[in-house]
Specification:
heterodimer, B: Thiol Ester Dehydrase, Chain A, 4 helices, elongated, MaoC-like_dom (chain B), Fatty_acid_synthase (chain B), HotDog_dom_sf (chain B), fatty acid synthase activity (chain B), Dehydratase (chain B)
Chain lengths: 150, 142
C-alpha cells in the first residue's frame, strides 16, 4: 500500500543531544582503516585549524540515521522496514563534526514516492550543535521494496 | 581549513591518486561495532542468503566512507569536503574466504566552481562492477 502523501513536510522533534567522543571518532576511523591524523591527534587537527579532532565525513550518519528511526518507526506512517534498502545518501557540511560536539538532529520527510510498487522515502536530517549552529545536513533516501507478487 | 591542494593548480580532468581498500568479514564486524549498524546482512551469511542476497554484503555507508578517502587524502584536510553524495547501485559482496573483497576507487575533477571549490566525481568498483552511482563531492581548495 502506498504511503500517505500527507506525511510530506512533517518534521519530527529534535533528538536529545549526542555527545561526540574523541575515542568514538578514533574507533570509527580505525574501522574504516583511515589513518588521517586529524581524526586522532589533537595537535594535527589544530594544525589544520580545528579546535579538536574532527570526525570522518560519513561519521555523522550513525547519528542522523538513528534520528531517522523516529520517522521509519512512526506507526502512523506504516513503512515496512524489513523491506527497506538504502538508496542514496548525501551530506552538506557547514563545518566538520568534532570531539565534544553535542549534536541534535531534526528530521523532516521531504518526499514520498511510489514507483512500481516500491515506496521511496526522502528524509532530511538537520544537525545542529549545542549553541544552535548548523553543522551538517544529511539526506537519506530509503526504498521499501514491493513484496513479491504485489 | 587548510587544504594542501591549490584551486589554481587543478584543472577539469585532474585525476586524484587512486586507491584500493580491502574489506573482509572482520572489517564488516568492526564497522558494525563502530557505526552501530548491526544489520545481519553485513555479517550473517545464512541471513543474507535468506533475504535474497548472493552472500554477506558490505555496509553501503562503509563503501561510502572508503570512497571519500581518495578525496580527503588528496585534499589533506577532511574538512575541505563541503558536500558528498552517493547512490548505492550494487552491493559489495564479501566472501568468507579470508581475502574478502576489494573496493577500487578513482576520482577526477569534473568542474571548477566558485569560491575556490571544485566538484570531484568518484568511481568505486568491486569485482568489476560499479558499486556507487552519482558519487560526487564538492571540495574547497586552498
Amino acid at each position: 500500500m502506498a504511503l500517505d502523501q500527507s506525511f510530506v513536510g512533517r518534521t519530527y522533534p529534535p533528538t536529545a543531544p549526542y555527545e561526540v567522543g574523541r575515542e568514538k571518532i578514533r574507533e570509527f576511523a580505525e574501522a574504516i582503516g583511515d589513518a588521517n591524523p586529524a581524526y586522532t591527534d589533537t595537535e594535527a587537527a589544530k594544525a589544520l585549524g580545528h579546535s579538536d579532532v574532527i570526525a570522518p565525513p560519513t561519521f555523522v550518519f550513525a547519528i542522523t540515521f538513528k534520528a531517522a528511526g523516529a520517522v521509519i518507526e512512526d506507526p502512523q506512517l506504516g513503512l515496512d522496514y524489513s523491506r527497506v534498502v538504502h538508496g542514496d545518501q548525501k551530506f552538506a557540511y557547514t563545518r566538520p563534526v568534532r570531539a565534544g560536539d553535542r549534536l541534535s538532529v531534526t528530521s523532516t520527510i521531504e518526499a514520498i514516492k511510489s514507483l512500481a510498487g516500491n515506496d521511496i522515502l526522502d528524509i532530511r536530517g538537520e544537525v545542529h550543535d549545542a549553541s544552535g549552529e548548523h553543522v551538517v545536513t544529511a539526506w537519506t533516501k530509503l526504498v521499501s521494496r514491493a513484496p513479491e507478487g504485489a | 581549513m587548510t587544504a594542501k591542494i591549490a584551486y589554481d593548480e587543478v584543472e577539469v580532468g585532474t585525476e586524484l591518486p587512486a586507491q584500493s581498500f580491502p574489506v573482509t568479514r572482520a572489517t564488516l564486524v568492526q564497522y558494525a561495532g563502530a557505526s552501530g549498524d548491526f544489520n545481519p546482512i553485513h555479517w550473517n551469511e545464512k541471513f543474507a542468503v535468506e533475504v535474497g542476497l548472493p552472500d554477506v554484503i558490505a555496509h553501503g555507508m562503509f563503501t561510502m566512507a572508503e570512497a571519500i578517502r581518495v578525496v580527503t587524502d588528496w585534499a589533506g584536510d577532511p574538512a575541505a569536503v563541503v558536500e558528498y553524495g552517493v547512490r548505492f547501485t550494487k552491493p559489495v559482496v564479501v566472501p568468507n574466504d579470508g581475502t574478502g573483497a576489494l573496493i577500487e576507487v578513482s576520482a577526477k575533477v569534473a568542474a571548477k566552481l566558485d569560491d575556490q571549490q571544485v566538484r570531484v566525481d568518484i568511481t568505486a568498483m568491486s569485482a568489476g562492477q560499479k558499486v556507487l552511482g552519482m558519487s560526487r563531492a564538492v571540495v574547497r581548495l586552498a
